Amino acid sequence: MSSQTTNDFSIQKVEKSKIASIDFENVKFGSVFTDHMLVCHYKDGKWGQVEIKPYGPMSFEPSINVFHYGQAIFEGMKAYKDTEDKVWLFRPQENWKRFNKSAERLAMPHIDEERFVGGLKALLNLDRDWVQKGEGNSLYIRPFMVGTHPGVVAGPSTEFMFCIILSPARTYYSGKVKVQIAEHYSRAANGGVGSTKCSGNYAGQFYPTKLAQDAGYQQVIWTDDATHTKLEEAGTMNVFFRIGDTLITAPTSERILDGVTRKSLIEIAKSKGINVEVRSIVVQDLLDAHAKGELKEIFGAGTAVTVGQIEGFAYQEKYYELPVVTDEDSYAIQLKKALQGIQQKHIEDTFGWTQSI
Ligand SMILES: *Cc1c(COP(=O)(O)O)cnc(C)c1O
User: Fold this and answer.
1) Is the CB of residue 262 less than 8 Å from the CB of residue 301?
2) What is the largest CA-CA distance in the chain?
3) Protein residue with least CA distance to atom 12, ligand 1
């Protein structure tokens, strides 16, 4: 293995890339990882050197914090390649800032921009062949941090590992989904950790989502924990509703994740002259709009799928189908095309969101 140290990053390359063995046309999301990963350890109150090295297993004592008390946070972002083979990131500082907000809430240390964004760029540069060109292709980026101090004393870890792994992704049109509005379970509560990307949020969501799936729906629309009337998120995505020609999404709060896709779609919609209302929206608003024939679209927004269309929702044992809207008339499709066009660099980025590495 060749080793070198540049700009405080230590880089150890694989002897032989495994890229030739990858069937990029058919990769399953999140199942294949690139040749390298980034690892950085926090100890004695400070971050150590960023190490970029071959992707592979790690070994830890069974007593480390994350296995018992779950100090674990993550981010999700994507890299894209344009027709000139340049690799691009989309608003990476937003993910870095949000990572630090999550870290703070979980009593974990902040990480500096140089290690997070600078380290990511160095890693991507090494694995740039893994970013495939063309419609729908991207490289999914998963930064995460876990408590690594050994010992089962219930308290915050004093040692942490920051890591970035990369996984080639292809977005297929996955079809519209049916959702169930949550009436009992909650994803988040005031004063809780719902606005952070901590791993436990996901673990707590698996069981109610499975119940919804057993009942014939693919996802849950999460409501506020106190009244189960406010419509807040769809699965692991932010959620938008179109009533008449107005696009509505809930304001971010302690229960709602401040999604980069959500805020980008709001800006794109406004720039297209679409009327956007950021306000709380309740189940009764939906039922009323549906009865009047004004409820036209519901869609989720998040990095993994960009925009995920919803075909209908269940509430109190009753299923409500949404009307069929043509692609030309659909806000979901228009906004998805506009956002993906900016990300993939075939639409001019007038917002200044994309950065080449
Ligand atoms: C990550 C996430 C989102 C979407 O955020 P993006 O930055 O758009 O990917 C929405 N809701 C939850 C609960 C999330 O964890």
Assistant:
1) yes
2) 67
3) 236
- Confirm whether 2 is domain-assigned: no
What pLDDT is attached to residue 4? 55
Token pair of 333 as six digits: 């499709």
**pLDDT for the residue numbered 3:** 53
> pLDDT tens, 154-198?
999 999 999 999 999 987 667 899 999 999 999 999 999 999 999
Count of domains in the chain?
2
Tell me the pTM.
0.96
What pLDDT, in 10s, does the model give residues 133-150? 988 899 999 999 999 999
Which residue is closest in CA terms to ligand 1's atom 13? 236
Number of separate helices (H) and strands (E) present in the chain:
8, 20
Domain boundary (117, 145, 170) is at 170
Helices (H), 106-253: 113, 119-126, 199-214
Mark whether 34 and 161 lie in a shared domain: yes
Q: What is the atom index within ligand 1 of the atom nearest the CA of 187?
A: 13
CA of 93 to the centre of ligand 1 (A): 15
Burial class (CB in 10 A: 0-12, 13-18, 19+), 13: middle
